[in-house]
Specification:
The chain has 1 helix and 8 strands, in the order E-E-E-E-E-E-E-E-H. The protein is an alpha+beta fold and about 120 residues long. Strand 3 and strand 4 form a beta hairpin.
Amino acid sequence: MSELVRVWTDIGGPKPVAILARIIEKNGTQYKIQYFSPSEDRDHGRIVYKYEDEVYDIDDDSVTEYLDSMNESDIGYVQVGDNAWIRDAGDSDEDYVPSDEDEDVESIDEEESFEDDEEEFLDEE
């Protein structure tokens, strides 16, 4: 296992982006890393992330965050194969659909408020 980090990377946009990577070798302030990237593969419709085959040399100044972990599961991924992970759906709200109950409660509150206002008006007369 290797240390996980986030690395500033220029992916062609207006600003650099912090991408997950693993350090596979350290030599002073120079690191050899592999980026952790989304692949074309899917597992039950979910994006599969893999470490790229290519190894990159970076300076430690390129590291934006040391994740204090050597295990992808510590940062929200589940291994589904050799060099294949998906995001852990346990903490995800992606499938949240608001219920109609919230709207009903709001409607009831509005009706009660209207009734209270009506009673106050009648009491004043």
